[in-house]
Amino acid sequence: MRHLIRVAAAAATVAGLTPVAGFAQTTEAVVAANTKTEAQPAPAVRKPAAKPAPRWLDVQTAALDARYRFVDSSAGVTTSNHLQYRNTLKVGIKLDQAGRYSVQALAGTGTSFTGSWENSGLGTGDKDWNPGVRHLYFAGKPAKGLEFQVGGLTMAKTENTEITGFDNDGYMVGERVSVKRPKDLYLDEITLTVGYFGDLTTPNVFKRLDSLDDHNFTQVVVAKKLGARVTGSADWARIAGVQAWHEAARVATREARAFDAVRLELYQRVDGVEGNGFAAGFEKALPHKAGLTLGWANIDRANPLVNGDRYGRGQRLFADAKMPLPADLSLNVFYTRAIDNDFALPLRTRFDVVVSYNVLKGVQRAIR
User: Fold this and answer.
1) Same domain, yes or no: 13 and 78
2) Is position 38 within any domain?
3) 0.85 exceeded by the pTM?
4) Which of 21, 104, 129, 214 is most deeply buried (CB count within 10 A of its CB)?
5) pLDDT digits (tens, 9 = 90+) for 153-175
């Protein structure tokens, strides 16, 4: 009926006739009043779409950390009993649409090769704040399985942890090339790094880039995965004329009920003051995505203090527990105790409680 009324009104208009005012509207109203119609749902209210990050900007890490730390020496003297904080921001700037070439940077706090934490002023030590850019380098992937980096670099990652290798906060300046073509070369990775290793109390990369022309560091890393359970690596390094070897393997042990994986690490220093050491860690996955590592390490008394500052030198037990918390937070509890050493240690006991906030994840959650 309504359709017929509209057609008639349209026909009258075409014919040059003027419809009686309100006739069509009134008639439609009568029809609508006597016709049952289904209620139409209200249109959904859409949130405005979040503005995406620029395609050329790759934010990889943004984190805020707080830590309580207790340290005493083998003489029984408390050297640290305080609260600290750490800020970390890691970004990449893509130079081409595919992201094969980029500039990578890591900015954060800290005053040394082995330290990225600052004192809050609560407890021992004065309050400080030393932000800076620790890493800044050009990275390229010109072909599949081939990568290179030039500038202020991180230390190359291997299966050796910072117990027997280099501290996770470490840095250097130089050049690195990696080949990852296991189908052609059998090995999963071959990495060569050359450059300058030093400036251990100067984490600001802009104060170290003038050492790019210097050369006192060479390292060759090879890595291989054997089946689904074993990953291993070995590297040779020469630092200021002193040669050292590092070897490590992580073995998954699904059948063992006590732990899920074991990692064995070794090193040998074959020049200068010779020495060697090892670490063995036993990893266990816990409920709620938590994890626990228990282990034993023995680092020789002449080893340069460029390994993890949580461990230092000496033989010791250690425990490291990690678990996620709500609201993009996580918890890390660490404890170590040196046992039966015949030389003085600045680090006998250490106890850390770290709470971290993943800023990047929180921002991504908020703009979804």
Assistant:
1) no
2) no
3) no
4) 104
5) 999 999 999 999 999 999 999 99
